[in-house]
């Protein structure tokens, strides 16, 4: 199917300011069609910040800053906005390389018409129809619309192209962009985001659950005392049928075991231990969980403030028509002995057997489960729409393997052998399908290395660009 013609985004407003370190930051607000196949269906707004380097100025220049090539950062998720440019590790590195940087919040997240239970239609059927438009195929169309606006005055076709840098889910968006609109791209950079482009959700989770188990083993090896602590906290939460959280929702035993979402990050194991330690000390000293502890717990995985992450996470693996997610993580996990807590009673456990076992309780990883729409107060308001989205199988295709096989856009990727979120074996399958890709592979970094070890990652990626292979 031919790609849709993408109109230029409509600028709503913009503003400039200088931040310390000689950065000129421009804030943009654009409007784009909610549905690119039906412009009459309304618009959504996109928020972006651009950063460029000022060599000597200390005030905002009256004249236009000389045009440098664009590099657009595509964040992970989907569900979270971008940091301020001066706070992003990428910014100063790539500015030194001669780019200007654009941080564009995807539709529905950050400041781009954010999706919350209060900002979307209130009827489940209308919520479902609305939320269908917030996947990565439309993220790509949005990017093209913004590129068409920002380069409208550029006469050289080669200079109208821009570079994109996709971290995690941003890599998924990048591969969709390469598939659908390669004419807009000068080069592509990907870190921890070589999407499993032809694997259904169930296949993806069979691979990632194996890696999650490995990270559980590493966690309990580092903190063996947490075997008993986690079980004790789970027993407490289960015996109370969950504990009410300050902002609503419940701390349940099953929600406790989703904290393993952090295991794939640099420092993630330590952050989970810190939460377990705090909860255990509360029970030791008071026999209940204090408000500060519960406040930290409810924001550990902030799905109430980033609901689109939960609503559409599994849909990122529905790569063509005919594939529905059908709560794939739940169906795969409950078949695994180590994660049998997923198949127990409504409170998350069989109190007479499983919780009295002495084996370590295994945490889940980057997975969304139906019970989250009961345990999180904001997710509860969109539960019926989420169920409809899980059954939906009429998604647009996300990738074009024939286009990727004949790709001519330079692609530079970092792939992490110990990645818990984008499984390495599946990432290698994708590497083989993208013509001309150059890949840096390592077993010494985790998924968030672009933040935790940014200088090392970026240096390696630019070596891929600057070094030649005979």
Automatic annotation (TrEMBL):
GO terms for biological process: proteolysis. This is Alpha/Beta hydrolase protein. InterPro entries: AB_hydrolase_1, AB_hydrolase_fold, Peptidase_S33, Serine_prot/Carboxylest_S33. Pfam families: Abhydrolase_1. GO terms for molecular function: peptidase activity. Belongs to the peptidase S33 family. Keywords: Hydrolase. Residues 69-230 form the AB hydrolase-1 domain. The keyword Phosphoprotein does not apply. The keyword Hydrolase applies.
């Amino acid at each position: 199917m031919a790609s849709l013609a993408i109109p230029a985004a409509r600028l709503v407003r913009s503003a400039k300011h200088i931040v310390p370190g000689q950065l000129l930051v421009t804030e943009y607000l654009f409007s784009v069609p909610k549905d690119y196949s039906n412009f009459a269906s309304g618009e959504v707004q996109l928020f972006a910040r651009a950063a460029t380097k000022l060599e000597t100025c200390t005030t905002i220049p009256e004249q236009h800053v000389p045009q440098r090539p664009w590099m657009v950062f595509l964040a992970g998720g989907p569900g979270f906005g971008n940091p301020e440019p001066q706070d992003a590790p990428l910014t100063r590195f790539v500015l030194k390389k001669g780019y200007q940087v654009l941080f564009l919040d995807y539709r529905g997240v950050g400041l781009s018409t954010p999706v919350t239970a209060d900002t979307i239609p209130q009827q489940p059927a209308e919520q479902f129809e609305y939320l269908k438009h917030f996947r990565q195929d439309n993220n790509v169309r949005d990017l093209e619309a913004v590129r068409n606006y920002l380069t409208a005055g550029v006469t050289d076709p080669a200079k109208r192209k821009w570079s994109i840098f996709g971290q995690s889910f941003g890599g998924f968006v990048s591969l969709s962009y390469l598939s659908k609109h390669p004419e807009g791209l000068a080069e592509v950079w990907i870190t921890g985001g070589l999407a499993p482009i032809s694997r259904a959700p169930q296949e993806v989770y069979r691979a990632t659950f194996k890696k999650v188990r490995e990270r559980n083993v590493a966690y309990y090896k580092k903190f063996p005392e947490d075997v008993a602590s986690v079980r004790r906290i789970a027993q407490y939460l289960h015996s109370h049928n969950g504990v009410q959280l300050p902002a609503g929702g419940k701390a349940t035993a099953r929600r406790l075991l989703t904290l393993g979402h952090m295991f794939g990050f640099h420092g993630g194991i330590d952050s989970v231990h810190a939460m377990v330690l705090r909860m255990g000390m509360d029970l030791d000293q008071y026999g209940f969980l204090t408000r500060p502890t519960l406040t930290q717990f409810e924001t550990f995985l902030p799905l109430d403030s980033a609901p689109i992450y939960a609503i559409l996470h599994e849909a990122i693996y529905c790569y063509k028509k005919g594939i529905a997610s059908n709560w794939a993580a739940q169906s795969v996990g409950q078949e695994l002995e180590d994660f049998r807590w997923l198949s127990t009673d409504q409170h998350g456990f069989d109190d007479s057997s499983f919780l009295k076992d002495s084996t370590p309780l295994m945490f889940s990883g980057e997975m969304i489960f139906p019970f989250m729409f009961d345990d999180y107060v904001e997710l509860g308001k969109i539960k019926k729409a989420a169920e409809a989205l899980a059954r939906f199988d009429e998604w647009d295709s996300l990738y074009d393997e024939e286009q990727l096989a004949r790709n001519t856009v330079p692609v530079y990727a970092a792939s992490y052998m110990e990645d818990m979120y984008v499984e390495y074996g599946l990432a290698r399958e994708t590497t083989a399908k993208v013509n001309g890709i150059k890949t840096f592979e390592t077993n010494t970094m985790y998924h968030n290395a672009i933040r935790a070890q940014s200088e090392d990652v970026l240096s390696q990626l630019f070596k891929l660009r600057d070094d030649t292979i005979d």
